[in-house]
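Worked example 4.2. Below are the chains of a multi-component assembly; read each line carefully before continuing.
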Amino acid sequence: MQTATVGRAVSSVPVPGSDSAPNATLSGRVDLTPTIAHFVVRPDDGAPAFVPGQYLALGLPVDGRLLQRPYSTASKKGTRDELDFLVRLVRDGAFTPRLWHLDVGDRLRIGRPKGLFTLCPEDPRRHLFIATGTGLAPFVSMLGTLLRESRPPRAIVLHGVSHVGELAYRDRLERWAADAGDISYVPAISRPNHPANADWRGATGRIDTALGPLCDALDVDPAETVAYMCGNPEMIAAGERILEARGFPRDAIRSEHYWPAGSPARA
Amino acid sequence: MAYVIAEPCIDHTDQSCVAVCPVDCITADTMVDRKFYIDPDGCIDCGSCETACPNAAIFRVDQLPSEWADFARVDATWYRDPAAARAVVDGLAPVA
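Applying the procedure described above to all two chains together yields the following structure tokens:
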């Protein structure tokens, strides 16, 4: 990985592609569906310190170069050895088809934690976490961290997916909702008529249709709630409009796009 | 080249872009440079820097405003010849 400068001078110009040797091992993998999987990565030097919500680049050598893509970790703050990532396979992507070929024990590159979409654990407001697909991962990190803090969190997790099998971390979130503090977990299925969702009895519809009724049902007060949104940029734009119309101050809405708005996802 | 840092960065160097770039491809020698530079060979086109920049200085190269079109070559030049890139920057935005 190249040298980056934060508040100091670099002594030399970094060489692109340098320092790209594998520095981590794939230590676990769970395929939830053919296109959604957990990848557990063990850095050789232990997991670097990170703030919940940050991402790290995973990298694989391709044609003599390091091909990298960033993924938010779902691991909670203070994790020492392994980091958990939730990844969607994009079949025509450059990176994820190669990642899907990895087996436990294979080597890869992991970068430094980066990103400013991070948890402020001292924020006393209720947390409204809104995610589509793999955008749930940073919120699992945030909520897992909040649960370890002394103050019981007040949080709502709205997770939108197409199919029931894509509800990653469902067991963990249901357990947290049942056992810990004031936590509500609301999974929503956008394609309820698909045969794979035939047994689904929970919330349905896209996030932008489920969000308003959810706020009413759970008595969300814009004056004492901070909203975090992550995933599809179109969902985020729609969610921002809904929340602002409900009276959320602009600075009470935080978001992380998983790919540039108006562009296809790179994976 | 996917993203380019244009004129609004000059003499501001906020560094939010550095904090969010997942592949560390935004660099400068802050003792000398008046702006940051994106390595075109390292950029993965994620757009994080564009969103984070408080000065609205970062653009996809195909969306670069015409008045800043010259910046498309400045960033790439810096990774081969920093002095040449700095000279172009000084020419485009003379020191006040």
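Take a moment to check your reading of the output against the notes. The interface with chain B takes residues 1-10, 13-14, 16-17, 55-57, 68-70, 111-112, 114-116, 257, 259-260, 263, 266 of chain A (CB under 8 Å). Residues 1-17 of chain A have pLDDT under 50 and may be disordered.
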